[in-house]
Design the sequence.
């Protein structure tokens, strides 16, 4: 990790690659919850939320790396509140930390009541992607991440803890 003259922190510096700020790839998407996406109680299906999480996370990952990305793992997702039929489901994603060929994206999902405008956080998720070289189809290095805010530095630290657990699971499955 290196601090530049402008006070930016550059993580995972690679002389051949320019870092990118978190804001350059942060992504958002939204849609109205329709009957086909709900269960018998009129709540948005968890599987549909997971689908949207994967898409909005992939947007941030591929915008950061300017590369094809594959989902390597989803190591945490929870459903704190339901999203109801007719509400707007909004998703926000941002790169939390870059490793070598992989990076972690955090996703927050919100519901918005059309009549009252009330917004609630419904889901949090962490998705790891690996950058794939378009020619060799092998994992390739991703650009460093430039952290500009205290929140980004906090997410960066927390992502390291999750990676340790994630890779321990992976190692345990192999043996
Ligand atoms: C993800 C994948 C490319 C990793 O390939 P691999 O040969 O195991 O690659 P490596 O062991 O060299 O690891 C490459 C990177 O992936 C990371 N990785 C591999 N498996 C992982 C997992 N389950 N969770 C998190 N990271 C993982 C490694 O930590 C490494 O990251 P780093 O370079 O930043 O340290 C491969 O397992 C794959 O293609 N999986 C299928 C992906 C897919 O089809 N996704 C759904 C559709 S997009």
Sequence:
């Amino acid at each position: 990790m290196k601090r530049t003259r402008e006070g930016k922190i550059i993580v995972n510096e690679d002389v051949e690659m320019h870092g990118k700020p978190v804001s350059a790839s942060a992504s958002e998407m939204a849609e109205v919850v329709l009957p086909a996406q709900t269960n018998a109680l009129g709540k948005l299906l968890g599987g549909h939320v997971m689908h949207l999480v994967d898409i909005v996370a992939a947007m941030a990952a591929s915008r950061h790396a300017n590369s094809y990305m594959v989902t390597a793992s989803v190591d945490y997702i929870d459903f704190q509140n339901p999203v109801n039929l007719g509400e707007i489901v909004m998703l926000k994603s941002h790169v939390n930390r870059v490793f070598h060929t992989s990076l972690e994206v955090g996703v927050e999902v919100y519901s918005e009541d059309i009549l009252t405008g009330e917004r609630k956080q419904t889901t949090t998720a962490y998705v790891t992607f690996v950058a794939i070289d378009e020619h060799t189809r092998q994992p390739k290095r991703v650009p460093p991440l430039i952290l500009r805010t205290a929140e980004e530095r906090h997410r960066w630290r927390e992502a390291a803890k999750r990676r340790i657990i994630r890779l321990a699971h992976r190692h345990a499955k192999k043996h």
User: Anything to note?
Assistant: The two ends are 33 Å apart (CA to CA). Residues 70-73, 99-102, 128, 130, 139, 166-167, 170 surround coenzyme A (CB under 6 Å). The helical segments are 46-65, 150-174.
